[in-house]
């Protein structure tokens, strides 16, 4: 089968008219000048931001910031909801602002979470102080749900802060030239470290970090967890080599247990009961900003997408 000469002539004409596309930038550059601050000044502004939120930095957070800035790695084992993320990131962010990287080695902070559902929440938690402080740092989330256009850009250009999962990090490190883009890495934060220890995903991450450390020799690693029992082993595995710091804090938590029962058991179905009839009562008992846990993912989806008017139907 031959192609018509007119079609070929049209193709050649279109090729001649085609102009090269400009190089894609990873993110829109922030119109904010880089502040000229020392590490001490940046840390002072970081702590001042805590006060604007009505918070007081806890002793273990001060300890974590000082440990990072002194060049140490380790584990932060504190109860859930006590500010572990800011404890691990305060030092790296202050150092990054005081010592900006070159464009070729933009990636300075790598935040790894095994829970894809929490990655975007973590990114929002990091973005909040950066926006308030007007610190011109870029954050990008890379998971299996990331848009293809963003994935394509990450092959050639990385942000200052990357929030990702173990699997997505392994994929990023298969791209050509990843060594040059990641050799300036300064901090690695391993969230929910107990979820990875002793698992296949944990083994994958350990191998990936071993490759990464061979390039980013100055990177410091901090693992976060609320439920690790053997902290010495957990710290040794996370840090891999060298002495590891263990930062703990016994923060008391008030536990309130309230049972919600249906008004009549006869109204409950014999099987397939997912608790949707009690959802209005549960929601009234949750404080703003609280969480609702379900045993199965299918129940979460049903709760999230069920119309409010159909709760008691």
Describe what you observe in this structure.
This protein is α/β, with parallel strands linked by helices and 313 residues long. The chain folds into two domains: 39-249, 3-Layer(aba) Sandwich (Rossmann fold), CATH 3.40.50; 265-310, no CATH class. It is 43% helix and 11% strand. It is built from 13 helices and seven strands. It has helices at residues 5-17, 39-52, 59-69, 84-98, 116-133, 148-154, 166-172, 178-182, 193-196, 200-215, 231-239, 279-285, 297-305; strands spanning 73-78, 109-112, 139-142, 161-164, 187-190, 220-225, 244-249. A seven-stranded parallel beta sheet has the order 3-4-2-5-6-1-7, with helices on both faces. The longest helix is centred in the middle third of the chain and has 18 residues, at 116-133. It is globular, with a radius of gyration of 24 Å. Mean pLDDT is 84; it is low at 18-30.
Characteristic key phrases:
13 helices, Rossmann fold, alpha/beta, 313 residues, single chain, 43% helix, globular
Mean pLDDT: 84
Determine the strand fraction and express it as a percent band.
5-15%
Q: Largest sheet at a glance? A: 7 strands, parallel
* Morphology: globular
How many structural domains are formed by the residues?
2
Low-confidence stretches: 18-30
Number of helices: 13
The residue fraction in helices comes out at 40-55%
At the fourth CATH level, what is the homologous superfamily of the largest domain? P-loop containing nucleotide triphosphate hydrolases
C-alpha end-to-end distance: 63 Å
Topology:
Layout (H helix, E strand, L loop, with lengths): L4 H13 L21 H14 L6 H11 L3 E6 L5 H15 L10 E4 L3 H18 L5 E4 L5 H7 L6 E4 L1 H7 L5 H5 L4 E4 L2 H4 L3 H16 L4 E6 L5 H9 L4 E6 L29 H7 L11 H9 L8
Parallel strand pairs: 1-6, 1-7, 2-4, 2-5, 3-4, 5-6
Helix pairs in contact: 2-4, 3-4, 7-10
